[in-house]
Amino acid sequence: VQLQASGGGLVQAGGSLRLSCVVSGITLDQYTIGWFRQAPGKEREGVAAIRSGGMTSYADSVKGRFTISRDNAKPTVVYLQMNSLKPEDTAVYYCNARSDSYDYWGQGTLVTVSS
User: Fold this and answer.
1) How confident is the model at residue 27 (pLDDT cuts 50, 70, 90)?
2) How many other CB atoms sit within 10 Å of the CB of residue 114?
């Protein structure tokens, strides 16, 4: 199982970034794919998730600004489009694949939003 996250970088407040997570080695119809983030000195928190059926959910702090989507081509790629970025969005972002029995994490990608 591999989850390969990319797309992080440095952006000014108000700008946009799109993160990508390439998912391989699992059957997507059994998993929820999520994006989490961890800011310095803070606990990891959920940002957005997309269920196997396509239903999405978002943290209140990113609703209306972030969009999660999935490309079901092989390999599957899950995107996190981040608009209107704020300095408080600065964090390492991780993608996650979770089923009833398993929980997989990718490596993080750093997003830094300057004011």
Assistant:
1) confident
2) 11
CB-based contacts of 19, cutoff 8 Å, min separation 6: 5, 6, 7, 8, 35, 79, 80, 82, 93, 95, 109, 111
pLDDT at 4: 96
CA distance linking residue 2 with residue 22, whole number of Å: 8
Per-residue model confidence as pLDDT tens digits over 59-71: 999 999 999 999 9
CA atoms in the 13 A half-sphere facing the CB of 93: 29
